Amino acid sequence: MASPGASFIKGTLAGIISWALLTSLSHIHHGREGPAQTHRHRHLPPAGGKAFPGVDQAPRPLNGSLRVLCVILGESEDEDHWTGLKATWTKHCDRAELYDTRHDGLFQADRYDRWIHMRETYKDVFGKHGDNYSWYFLTLPTTFAVMENLKYFLLTRDAWQPFYLGRTARSGDLEYVSAEGGIVLSIETVKRFIRRLRSDEDCADPSAIWNLAYDKQLAFCLKYAGIFAENAEDFEGKNVFNTKPIAHLIQEAMPSNPQHVVKGCCSDMAITFNGLTPQEMEVMMYGVYRLRAFGHHFNDTLVFLPPHGSEND
Q: Quick check: 25 pLDDT over 50?
């Protein structure tokens, strides 16, 4: 027999998806680092004063002003996810590139190393696209992303400055962005990363006794290029890049917030959730893009149109 908690989760999941994620693009800012915090990573500061001067008129499209290249880093066994990814959220990227271990002969099948996979992928996509895109967004095949929220988050950021964003974690003294929540690099960061690889192809920590995980290797490499991980939060201090699916976040929030499960669980401006199957991504697409409350008006002042020619939801 299912536990009351499990029944509650099942009963509220559909509502959570449509309520928590299908909200208007409310003003977002990023938590300040205060003396009470124990972590040392830098939070993105608020945009300053009024977030977007002059946007309180009629909605205006911004499809050409901010271009994001999505890069999905997978393995050969992730093939089942490719069709689902192409049919769901990646349609909202300005361009999406899917890289598995068999991609164009970039990787040696007999010697798979995720760090090599990651750095060769970055080199390949940058070689093909260069600065045609202002932001490079790397995710895993099990990650679902709300691209409009990502673009809104990045809107006041200068891509020609070094940004390395997402859900930060700590390993010893190293602060890094977890690949499970998605990694966002500005074009300036990508260029510095590529230059660093040209001078030191491995870009590895010589003091490490064993190989670091690939997302930690990236942080180590970027650190020596003068770039540090930054945690992304909404105006309430909630993380917007999530390393788990919604159901797990709800379950974690229930003991401490039994009367406010949604409020204690997730940001209304969430950008990513991880650990989803292709079928769960279809459910997310329904909740985020297709379910509507009749007669309810959203006061969005900014509109991100889908890429030209996209069969967009």
A: no
Q: Is the pTM of this model over 0.90?
A: no
Q: What is the helix (H) or strand (E) element at residue 309, kind and residue range?
A: none
Q: Which two tokens stand for residue 262?
A: 């949604």
**Residues whose CB is less than 8 angstroms from the CB of residue 253 and which lie 6 or more positions away in sequence, other chains included:** 261, 264, 265
Cα gap 85→72, rounded to integer Å: 9
Percent of the chain with pLDDT over 90: 43
CA distance 99 to 170: 27
Least confident segment among 32-41, 130-139, 157-166: 32-41
Q: Which residue is listed with tokens 């960061």? A: 189
The length of the chain in residues reads: 313
Query: Between 190 and 8, where is the model more confident?
Result: 190
CB contact at 8 A, 63 and 306: yes
Are the C-beta atoms of residues 242 and 249 closer than 8 Å to each other? yes
Interior CA angle at 286 toward 283 and 289, to 5°? 140
202-205 own/partner pairs: CB under 8 Å, 24+ apart:
203/119, 204/115
Residue type, 162: P
The answer to whether 283 touches 89, Cβ cutoff 8 Å, is no
